[in-house]
């Protein structure tokens, strides 16, 4: 449940969505990279992160609608919270325990 708690925080930010496919859970960060140059090249190409090096354009989220391409898709915080409350019957207990722990420290 901790991972979903963290993902709820991530989806609390603008232009961040989440999806799950056969390979696992991913975030969609619909903001331009700060290293993207005006001419479309990468400003840190030689030092770009591993995820950039591994990314291919064989298939991406623009090839197919979100609803069709992903097993699960969450537009934002409210949609994910609804999902975790349905998936984890003890979610409200978890949230209460989490808050009590934080208040003790
Ligand atoms: S390759 Fe990676 S670091 Fe470079 S512009 Fe694209 S997303 Fe940013």
Keywords, please?
105 residues, alpha+beta, 3-stranded antiparallel beta sheet, 5 helices, 41% helix, globular, binds iron/sulfur cluster
Textual characterization of the structure:
With 105 residues, this protein is of the alpha+beta class. It has one domain. The chain is built from five helices and three strands. It has a three-stranded antiparallel β-sheet with strand order 2-1-3. Strand 1 and strand 2 form a beta hairpin. Helix 1 runs antiparallel to helix 4. It binds iron/sulfur cluster (SF4). Iron/sulfur cluster (SF4) binds next to loops. The site of iron/sulfur cluster has 7 residues, from loops.
Number of β-strand runs? 3
* Total of domains: 1
Bound molecules: iron/sulfur cluster
Helical segment tally?
5
User: What is the radius of gyration?
Assistant: 17 Å
Shape: globular
User: Average pLDDT, to the nearest integer?
Assistant: 89
List the secondary-structure elements in sequence, H or E.
HEEHHEHH
Layout: helices, strands, pairs:
Layout: H1 2-10, E1 16-21, E2 24-29, H2 50-54, H3 66-69, E3 72-74, H4 77-87, H5 91-104
Antiparallel strand pairs: 1-2, 1-3
Bound molecules: iron/sulfur cluster (SF4).
Residues 33, 35-36, 42, 44, 48, 52 line the site of iron/sulfur cluster (SF4).
Brief summary of the model shown:
The protein is an alpha+beta fold and 105 residues long.
């Amino acid at each position: 449940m901790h991972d979903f708690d963290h993902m709820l925080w991530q989806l609390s930010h603008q232009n961040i969505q989440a999806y799950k496919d056969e390979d696992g859970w991913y975030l969609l960060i619909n903001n331009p990279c700060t290293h993207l140059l005006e001419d479309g090249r990468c400003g840190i190409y030689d030092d770009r992160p591993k995820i950039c090096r591994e990314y291919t354009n064989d298939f991406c989220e623009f090839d197919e609608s979100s609803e069709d391409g992903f097993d699960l898709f969450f537009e934002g915080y409210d949609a994910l919270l609804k999902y975790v409350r349905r998936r984890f019957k003890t979610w409200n207990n978890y949230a209460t325990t989490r808050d009590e722990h934080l208040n003790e420290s």
